[in-house]
Every structure is written in structure tokens, then in C-alpha cells.
Amino acid sequence: MAVAQQAPINFAVMYATHDAFRRDLQRLAAAVADGRAGTPHVRDGWENFTFQLHLHHTVEDSDLWPRVARAVAGRPADQKLLREMEAEHAQLGPVLAAVDDGMTRGAADLPARVAELAQVLGDHMTHEENEALPLIQDVLTPKDWDAFRGAMARKQGPKGAAVYFPWITDGQNATERKAFLDTMPAPVKILNRLFWESSYRKRGMWGS
Ligand SMILES: [Fe+2]
User: Where is the Hemerythrin-like domain positioned along the sequence (predicted)?
Assistant: First the structure.
């Protein structure tokens, strides 16, 4: 029997957030290679990176995966994928701590620690994009996805949004910027363009 296809979910915000993590990992690796890991602007970039990552995973764990879990009761392969997502989030803790420690102490093996983080986080995000997003498309509705996004916005609050939006649009090309901002309410786009981006730029994260 043919199964009704769910209405398409727009995952632009998830891809844009993952790409911002990938971009920051490249900036971190470049800063470490240049011997700039101990500078205040690199420290600031790193602190924002870990804050955004913690927030992203916290809200996925509280408001996304449980929704998917309820929808896949009785589907063991899909339940296994959700356990893998959870395990991969947990695996990041010690890898992040190793980089943080390496930056604080100026450890000689900091480049290797950063490379490990890039590998572990990169693999996790690719796994999520290739397997978890199709599952979400299969079992959740656009309304469920909006509920997850609403939880994220509440957790960020207005102060968090003022950093999150320009952090995402930093370095995006026109197509990526449009794909991301088109999913947002008009006032957010205006605030980002008029105020948030300039404050963010002045902060000079990563010394860029
Ligand atoms: Fe994600």
C-alpha cells in the first residue's frame, strides 16, 4: 500500500547552522596553525563556538529527538539511528574539553586535538544530514519542525538571536544567505542587517 508522503520540511536552518560550525572549525585550525590560539579574539571565537554547539545539541536532545523517537516506536533500525545521534553528542564532550585544555595551556599537540574535533563533529553532522534528516522528513510534519525551531528561539532569547543570526550569515554567499534568511520572519532579517551584523563584526571573533 502506498504511504502518504509528508509535506516537505525546509531544513535550511539546520544546514546553515552545521555550515557555521564547519566554517568555525576551519578558522580555529588556521588560528592554531598561525600560533594565534591564545589571542583574545580567537578565545572569543572558540567560546562562541562551544556555546552555539551546546545550545544546538541541547535543544535537539530536548525537543527534536524525543519527537522522532515517539514517531518511530516499533521501528528498530530508526531507533538505533537515534541512539547513535545521542552517543555522538556525548562523544563530543571529551573532545571539546581536550581542545579547550590545549588552548588554555598552549599544548604542543593542539593541532591534533583540533583535527580530532573536526573529524568527530564533521562525521556527526554528515551522519545527521544523510540519515537523520531524511528520517525526520519521513515521520515529522512541518508543524513539528516549527515547534523544534520555536524551542530553539525561546532558548536563545533576543540576546542570543542578536549573536546567532550574524554568526550564521558571516561568510555566507548570496544564495546561502537567502536560503537561510527566507525561513525567518521579516523583522529578524531587518534587525540582522541593520544592527546585529555590525555589532558582530566589531567583536572581531577569530581575529578575522
Ligand atoms: Fe544538527
Answer: 13-136
